[in-house]
Write a structure and sequence with these properties.
Blueprint: H1 2-16, E1 23-25, H2 29-42, E2 52-60, E3 63-66, H3 68-82, E4 83-97, E5 103-115, E6 121-133, E7 136-144, H4 147-161
Parallel strand pairs: 2-7
Antiparallel strand pairs: 1-4, 2-3, 4-5, 5-6, 6-7
Length: about 160
C-alpha cells in the first residue's frame, strides 16, 4: 500500500507538471558567445559587435542607447580615454529559453579598471541581460553603479578644458 501511495503521488506530480516551462542553460552556444564577448571587451577587441543587430536598443540603468554603432562607441571609449587595465572577474552566465520562444542571456560579473585620468582603481559589480532574435542581440539591459564612469568622464572633461 505504501508503494501504491508513492506511485500515485509521483504520477500526480508528473501529471501536473507545467509543459510550458522554460529551460535554463549555462553550457550552451549563446552563453559561450557572451562569455567570449567579455573576454574580447577586456582585451579591447570589438570583433564581437557582429552579434548585435544594427538597431539594438541598450538600456543602461536609466539611459537608452539606440543602435550598434552608438553602443560600441561607448564601450570603446572605456579603452580609448577612460580606463586602463580593464578586467572582467567573477563571471556567471546562463541563457533562458522561455516557453514563448523568447531567449535571454543573463550575466553577473565584476568589472575592474584603472582610471586613465584620475589613476583611481575601480571595482564594480554588474548585471547584464541580452535578448536574442534570429541569432542577434536586439536588446541589452544593464545595471551597475555609475560612480566610476561619472568620475572618469568628469576628470577627462576637466583635463580637456585646461
Amino acid at each position: 500500500m505504501k508503494y501504491l501511495y508513492s506511485f500515485l503521488l509521483c504520477a500526480l506530480i508528473i501529471g501536473c507538471a507545467d509543459s510550458n516551462q522554460s529551460i535554463l542553460k549555462s553550457d550552451d552556444d549563446l552563453s559561450a558567445k557572451i562569455n567570449i564577448q567579455y573576454e574580447n571587451y577586456a582585451a579591447n577587441d570589438f570583433s564581437f559587435s557582429d552579434q548585435y543587430s544594427d538597431d539594438v536598443v541598450a538600456r543602461i540603468n536609466n539611459m537608452v542607447i539606440e543602435g550598434k554603432d552608438n553602443l560600441m562607441t561607448g564601450w570603446k571609449s572605456h579603452h580609448e580615454f577612460l580606463y586602463s587595465n580593464i578586467n572582467i572577474e567573477d563571471i556567471y552566465i546562463h541563457t533562458n529559453y522561455f516557453s514563448d520562444g523568447s531567449i535571454w542571456t543573463n550575466a553577473w560579473l565584476t568589472w575592474t579598471g584603472s582610471g586613465q585620468t584620475t589613476g583611481n582603481e575601480y571595482s564594480n559589480r554588474a548585471h547584464f541581460d541580452y535578448k536574442w532574435e534570429d541569432g542577434k542581440i536586439v536588446e541589452v539591459l544593464a545595471y551597475f553603479d555609475e560612480t566610476a564612469e561619472n568620475n572618469e568622464i568628469a576628470a577627462y572633461t576637466a583635463s580637456l578644458e585646461n
